[in-house]
Amino acid sequence: MENLALFILLALLAEILGTVGGFGSSLFFVPIAGYFLDFHSVLGITALFHVSSNISKIAFFRKGFDKELLIFIGIPAVIFVITGAFISRFINPKILETALAIFLIGTSLVFLFFKNLSIKPTTTNSILGGTFSGLIAGLLGTGGAIRGMTLAAYNLKMEVFIATSAIIDLAIDSSRSIVYSYNGYVHKHDLYLIPILLLVSIAGTFIGKKILERISETQFKSIVLILILITGIVTLSKVLFN
């Protein structure tokens, strides 16, 4: 890969921002990786990257997790990420990339303008949140924002929130990695990136944890949302004018 050092630096930044912002690194990593790889390859690499990323998060934030939410959000998320991953092979990559850009822009604007937006902590909403986050993760490579909003309804402690989200995400990414491999999205010539991204995920999670210990999560989340908005606009511009 050309500009490998830049790719690694941006992946590290994505992991740090994803850890601190609570939205998951894929919100940044998927559009960033799109400048270096084709979109289907990005989906495959992102899934494998996230497996190691979530193992790192579970290791660093292992003080507890919510078993009920693992069931009500995790099970539908895994079912529908498999569904979305299979469907993705039948949709033009440019359409998927455009949908990703619109999703990033829409997500950031909603959270920026409706800062008190929340959903009721009900079993139905948990299942719906898991369903939509899984489906979008399978199609576009990232569904952490929807899962984050669903988990936020339960006012979990930071460690429990991150650990619960990471366990669910690990199940999602493990499942879609198998489907993406079947779809032909995981290429042998890209596999050298996996150990590199493993180290990036550990370093990024560690740095993100240290940042969370020093600054307000709310303040930093606003910065993260602005960066997501910019990322979405740049991604959309790339699709439209490339």
TrEMBL record:
Question: Which GO CC annotations does the UniProt entry carry?
Answer: plasma membrane
Q: Where are the transmembrane segments?
A: 28-49, 69-89, 95-114, 126-146, 191-208, 220-241
What Pfam families does the record point to? TauE
**What main location does UniProt list?**
membrane
Task: Please state where this protein is localized.
Answer: Cell membrane
UniProt topology in membrane: Multi-pass membrane protein
UniProt keywords, alphabetically: Cell membrane, Membrane, Transmembrane, Transmembrane helix, Transport
Q: Which family does it belong to?
A: Belongs to the 4-toluene sulfonate uptake permease (TSUP) (TC 2.A.102) family.
Q: What's the protein name?
A: Probable membrane transporter protein
Please tell me the species this chain comes from: Flavobacterium flevense
Name the lineage: Bacteria, Pseudomonadati, Bacteroidota, Flavobacteriia, Flavobacteriales
